Amino acid sequence: EIVLTQSPGTLSLSPGERATLSCRASRSISSDYLAWYQQKPGQALRLLIFGTSNRATGIPDRFSGSGSGTDFTLTISGLEPEDFAVYYCQQYGRAPLYTFGQGTKLEIK
Amino acid sequence: QVTLKESGPALVAPTQTLTLTCVLSGFSLSTDGTRVSWIRQTPGKALEWLARIDWDDDKFYRPSLKTRLSISKDTSKNQVVLTMTNMDPEDTGSYFCARSQGSYDRASGYYINHYYFDHWGQGTLVTVSS
Question: Taken in order B3, B8, B10, B16, is the CA torsion positive or negative?
Answer without folding.
Answer: negative
